[in-house]
């Protein structure tokens, strides 16, 4: 049986669909007690990875385990892991309540649990309506209710914000965080960092089926650098003075300004004063997480470690 | 396992498909039953008119005692069990095309468990369909037949048994095909084409080639043999000594030309259902659910 640790472990996971390598040698672990974001652009292999973890797709190589076991060895999987997946279907003629009762009996929980989770996701008033008439957001809520039926220790959600209105997204955010705070494991995928930025504590960023970054979101935030954009009276004099002060990352921008990285604006201004250079304009710029994410996941960096310098010009790429 | 069986049962009772298919099944069985009685009556009247005494001499009983209803009933069961077969065909193909199979597999200990639970539930439904077919068929036949043409109590029991058995087997066959062909329309069209057209053409060809015995080993030939052989046996048991040629004609009328004994026919068809289900199981077991 499984060890009850709540740990998700993906090791050297690879999936080949014919000539297409959907996932290549992917490794990461997800610990209980936190919400982990699984990020990457469309087509990066997120859905395939989650489906391999849930035993729906057979890996070409590598392993994916929950509580130390592959999915099919979990015994009663519905009580260990709950999942909301894209393209997870409902019978259009079945009511929401009956849908939940079907799977409540499959998992082996009492029918009362079906009514409880339907209330939890706010669908009580629509419980006896046929799912065929549900909006995308309502279906997403019902999918979440289904995932919660077995009161699982691990929750896996593939793009759960799809179709949810802002109110629904805010509710989901609070719900997932409190779920994780109970010591449970939450893994949530998205193609938008901004969408989950306020929800997740840890991130796994993949692109083209490979891991690009894996660690606390805080660490990713700290790796952002500031740069100073300055408009001096004499470019060469200021650049020379900065270099003399040990600043190497100086770049000439097309608009005539200098971009100086690794220093703050005060230091640049002081150096300019000492060098007798006038400053006509100065500005600090911070690269946001989304741009960092974009650079991590663009094709240009496929196969390399996270880009150390996020200021490099984008050259083509895809995301 | 009991949990999964309950879940699968709930899946079938929480949508309208079971009665949506059960109503035409009952109507068809009733219609065949009525027609059987009327046609049988017409035939018996014709035979009793005196011009066909030779036949009655062969059979050793007077025409008003011929249990002609048996032949129509065998045919009626063969046709009506098409519906439970379609019901079965939608068991897995329906889940695959609606993508509900994802949740089914996520909540089952393994795919084998899920498929076995499904099969058990559809065996139950096959039995229910079989009982309904026999009930409405019986009502139709009794309403339009003279008592002399009806089977005795033992005959009714035997017919009910093979009707339920035939319906269960047809449902299982459908479940297997639905697992092999993950497309509802595709599975149903193929089943209908095969059972209503393709194999009938094959039967004609095999009879022309003078190897009718092969028919009894084909899917439709064997399932028809299950009911057809029982009805011929029941008919003959109340008739006198019958020459082989006449017996062959009677088998053809019952839709069981070239068929084996009823129990062997049942085993042959069970084999077919098993092969199809094993194929569907193998496909489903290794399938990537994307």
From TrEMBL, chain A:
The cross-references to SUPFAM superfamilies, in alphabetical order and at most eight, read: P-loop containing nucleoside triphosphate hydrolases (SSF52540)
Q: Which Gene3D superfamilies match?
A: P-loop containing nucleotide triphosphate hydrolases
Q: Which residues form the ABC transporter domain?
A: 8-233
- Coiled-coil stretches are none
What are the entry keywords? ATP-binding, Nucleotide-binding, Transport
Q: Tell me the InterPro entries matching this sequence.
A: AAA+_ATPase, ABC_transporter-like_ATP-bd, ABC_transporter-like_CS, P-loop_NTPase
Q: Which domain of life is it from?
A: Bacteria
| Single Gene Ontology MF annotation | ATP binding
SMART domains from the UniProt entry: AAA (SM00382)
The family classification in the record reads: Belongs to the ABC transporter superfamily.
Q: Which PANTHER family match?
A: ABC TRANSPORTER, ATP-BINDING PROTEIN
What is the name attached to this protein's record? ABC transporter ATP-binding protein
Automatic annotation (TrEMBL), chain B:
List residues traversing the bilayer.
21-48, 68-92, 120-143, 155-181, 188-209, 262-283
Q: Which Pfam families match?
A: ABC2_membrane_2
Could you tell me the keywords of this UniProt record?
Membrane, Transmembrane, Transmembrane helix
Signal peptide (residue range): none
**What is the name attached to this protein's record?**
ABC transporter permease
Lineage of the species this protein comes from: Bacteria, Bacillati, Actinomycetota, Actinomycetes, Pseudonocardiales
